[in-house]
Structures are given as structure tokens and as C-alpha cells.
Amino acid sequence: MTSTLNGTRSRGHAIARSLLTDTSPGTTDADFTRWYAGRQAELRQKVDRVRLDSMRGWHLAPDTGNLEHVSGRFFSVRGLHVRSDFGPVPEWYQPILDQPEIGILGILVRTIDGVPHCLMQAKVEPGNCNGVQLSPTVQATRSNYTKVHGGNAVPYLEYFRDVPPERVIADGLQSEQGSWFYRKRNRNMIVEAPAEVAATENFRWLTLGHVRRLLATDNLINMDSRSVLACLPVDGDAAAEEAGPGGDDWTAAVRASLRPDAPRLHSDVATLSWLTDRRAWHQVVTAPVPLRDLPGWQRTRHEIAEREGRWFSVVGVDIEASGREVAAWSQPLLAQQGVGVTAFLVRPIRGVLHVLVAARAEPGYLDVAELGPTVQCVPENYAHLPAAGQPPFLDLVRAARPEQVRLDVELSEEGGRFWHTRNRYQVIEVGDEVPDDPGPGFRWLTLHQLGALVRHSHYVNVQARTLLGWLRSPA
């Protein structure tokens, strides 16, 4: 049985109901395991590292040495000169991915037996460390969905073009990694299906609660899915009504934090003023430079890498894959050095869960700074710096006791652009050792405050969106 999500109140209750439902009649844990194993066996790919100058369809620009696609579309790898007063290093050079196109990341929602389900896709990407991961219903750049590659059409794309307003649940432009992308944005959409849309073999209808539970599994829910799911509007009052009484102190603090009238340390106006001040206060000045002779980086036939082996490198790959719009292609990928740490410190304040966000300035952001996790770094990159240059609060994350850890999962970043790039995502509960005023670059916000900001563009970064998607559940 299928019904539509009509009206703000009914939609809020339906979303809360889906968050509280961790399986569905057609997708038990055993059903999902069998389906996912089948997709892993069927959707195979062969990925070989190749020389940067031998990638099919790519060339090194003769005047700059930039890596560019022969079509002039998709993306390129360019050089960037950065000067910034944010962090311990005031000036540097780096490669950066330049992808000016706005792609579509979309999840289709259908109500089954009174519970909204998301249409999730088993998708293989060349940079995934484990082959198949769960992606949104649609995950496509403009070059992909306009078929610049000459391949097949993107399944279900028609549901995200010219959508009637009443079927739009969430829709916004969101940034991606500002340290690796130059002003990249994707359209993050959640759309209600107009009819009983069937799931083809590489797709599965799952409840929001089921997807959230799977998010705690290493390298299963991909970055694009996590980004879109964080844009979901969660009605705190509806969630409390659907959840009913009961639960432990943690659950009570989370439910209180989802409510729009929950007590908070900082008003919405004060929060926006603080972020605006950070954006105005910090200077991040960028200028394009040729990739060929990038200071501090060395170039071989197989990679472009930082001379000290830190940060990341640029590599080339050749791919043969099944279940994709194109069966074979080449491309560059960015490879992070080491496994990163991405963590929210959280604590109940007057019975309401607050998360400690950081105003992070990164060279690729469109508007200087966005709200990010408390800690977001690869610790090895800071090992050569003195104590004053270490990321704030990293020591608390590393020293967390087991009973403080609410989430600890390794998750891959987007396998279409990054090679085996993984970060350890954590939610760490702390106490009064982190004060109400933790310093000018940090603020305690409720889940409702952070969720409201996600509904707008360029406020909450992609790493924080991953953690927010897991945290915002009344279960």
C-alpha cells in the first residue's frame, strides 16, 4: 500500500515514523545481506593505477600542466596558491579539483505500509576501498546526466527534473570538501515518488531507521548518501510524539535537542552573527597557478605528491566496471595520506544535547568558512608541528573512554573523486571539561539549530552533515 506525504504535519510524523522503523517487511537484515552480497558479486570493477600522461580521454595542458578532460567537461586538476590567517600555516600551494558543474544527488522517497522508504542504490566507484557502497537514487554530474560520455541514461533521473513543488521534501546546494574541491556544489534533493515506483535490481527501498543503522557499518553508506540524508527535515515535535515516552538519558537529550523550542546556549541570530564574524574576520585568498611547477610538490609519471609525504597525492586510474553508464574509462583521483579523524564532541546542557561545531575556513569554500565537526584532520599531517599547532580538542577525542563513544565508524569519502580515502567518524560525549565558551572558533548548537542551517546552502560542511545524519534520530 502506498500513500502520499501531504501537509507539513503529516510529513513530519511520517519522517519520524521512518526514523523509528529500522527494518521493513520486504527488507529484513537477512534480505538486505543477501541483496548486498549479490550486488557485490555482480557489480565488479577492475581498477589499475596508470601513468598520469596515459589516461584515456585526458591530457596535460601544454601551457600549465593541468590535468584536463579532452571534452572540456567533467572536472580538472589545477594548481592553487593559498594565503590564510586560519590555522598554523599562513601560505601554501596545492593541487585542487575544479568541477564547476552542479550535479544532482537525489533520494526518492515512497511510502510503503504507512512508512516512508528511501530508494538506495548499490553503486561501484573506482576509488571505493571495498567495491559497492550504498549511494543515493541519483548521483550524477551534469556531464554524466547530459551523456557527454556517450553512455547510458541515468536511472530515475526523470523524478528529479521539473519536480512539482509539493513533492519536494528537501532541495539545496551543498558544498563538498573545501580542502580538495574549488567551490564545488551539488544539488542535494529528497523527492517524493509520484506513484508506486519499482526498485530495479541495483536499487532497494529502505526505511530511514534502517539506513541510519547501516551508517554505523564501516564503508557502507557512501558520502553522497550521507550528505543528502542530512538535509532531511526532522520535526522535533513530531518525532517526540511518534517516539512516545521512555528511553534513557541520552535518548531524552537527543529528542529534546530536536525540538525547535529547546533551550539553547546561543540564539539563532547570535549563531548567524558569530559565523558571519568568522567569515569576515578570516582571510582566505586564493589564486590559480600552473600545476606543472607547484612549489612544495613533486611530479612523477605516476603521481603528484607533497614532498614530505603529507596531505594527499593525485594519481591516475584506468577502470572497467559493470552497472555503470560507461563500461570503461580513465580519470585522476585524489588520494589522502592516512586515515582522518572527524569527530563531534557532544554534551547535554540543561537536559538538551548540544554539539560543538567549529567554524572552518578552507580554500575551496565559496564563502570562506562553514560549520564543521569539532575535530577534522589527519593527525599525521600535524606531527611535525609544536603543541600550539595541533588541532584543538584532538587530545580529548584520542583519550575518549569507551563509555563516552556514541559512534565510531570508518567511512569512505566519494569514490568517484578520491582513491581509498577514509575517515574515522566519531561522536564523543563529554562533560564540563569542555566549557560553555570553548573559544572564538567554536560554538555549542542544538541538533535543531544545526538541522535548520543545513536546509540552506554553504552553512554546514559535508563532514558535519555525515555526523548530523546519524545524530538526528529520536530512537
UniProtKB/TrEMBL annotation:
Example of a GO MF term: lyase activity
Highest taxon listed in the record's lineage: Bacteria
Gene3D superfamilies given in the database record: EvaA sugar 2,3-dehydratase subunit
Span of domain dTDP-4-dehydro-6-deoxy-alpha-D-glucopyranose 2,3-dehydratase: 30-232, 271-469
InterPro entries found in the cross-reference section: EvaA-like, EvaA-like_sf
Pfam families: Hexose_dehydrat
Protein name: Oxidase EvaA
Organism: Micromonospora auratinigra
